[in-house]
Amino acid sequence: MSGNQRRQWKSMYKGLILGMLLTSCMILLYCLSAPQGQVILQEVPVPYSCAYHPAHANDLQVSNTSHNAGGQTSICTPKVDVMFLKTHKTGSSTVLNILFRFGEKHHLKFAFPDSRNDFFYPSPFQRSQVKDYRAGVCFNIICNHMRFNEPEVAKLIPVDTTYVTILRDPAELFESSFHYFGRLVPFTWKIPGEDKLTEFLQEPWQYFDPEGFNSFYLKNLLFFDFGFDNMMDPDDPRVEESIQAIEERFQLVMLVEHFEESLILLKDALCWEIGDLLFFKLNARKGSMVSRLNSQLRAQALEWNKIDWKLYQHFNVTFWKKVDAYGSERMARDVEELRRRNKEMADICIEGGHAVEANSIQEAAMQPWQPIGEKSILGYNMKKNISKKHRKLCRKMLTPELQYLTDLGVNLWITRLWGYVRDLINW
After folding, report:
1. Which PROSITE patterns match (predicted)?
2. Containing structural domain, residue 27
């Protein structure tokens, strides 16, 4: 048998073994992680606020100074009851890190998922999915991936909670989702050629299966994350009704394309300080793995995700109204200050001053989660000789989501089991 034949047989056997392992593990994971049937929970009225819960009352006596667009000064108390709807592929992991740090600093109580890093997504959120949930327990922050289910969320968190989320241009989001989740969506396996994204957008209905496993990742994903039917006709009146419902519920809808301005609006909405908003960009892809959409592909992606495009256009308008109300000059000053402080922290914390590819990350604790079949997500190396004053903050700002969740006491055994399966597939 020639060398080429041996390699072909080895490749075939490897594929068969991995296929059987993947199938078995997917069935096991489904059985273990599938949410239980509807659980009847005791109905206890949620408190108006958890801000003065004895566990952290002393931390909440600090008031911040706020300046409005007219230059007037007012005193406000930082808000600690926050619901962040973590949408997919929108820079939300970076926001999560900010919320984790703020919650830790003020000893707040998080509503975390149990055994995994999301609330049994894509199933609609249920209170029973919350780790250590008991009726009447005061939770301050909920921020992990979920499919939004407003009635259940409202029965968990205080009445005075500030609801926040973030959106992304749907064409760019679709490109990112296609590359990140594509291998987990079986209908993409039959798309021919090297450039599957372009091929799909030419004739999406030739390949798309609305009932297919994980198909929601590749059609109006934002609308789906909000808990609505992503297969609705874009001209259905219920689309506009749903968008209005989102506006009524969420006090702030941020835009990833204007991330720093979004954080300043978040600071204003929550009466936080700029120091609470410092960030390093987490979970970003390396540039060579990003498909640049030409005008035709962009138009096709927006047409395919037309509901998400309507959603984005609506909140793009409300976003800039909030910026105008904040004051353009004031916004420019605060954004410049945030950038200066971020640059200062990057110089202190990051080896080389920038993100690196996965193979160049020296510390396992700094390795971000990677998609199946590739190592496209960048991470960081932390400098060795950081002063005691900054060492703790540097590590927290650089820590990827899963590691931070573990540090906060979440047992991610299902997520880690899936990680072992992923590593086998990447073998």
Report:
1. PROKAR_LIPOPROTEIN
2. 1-34
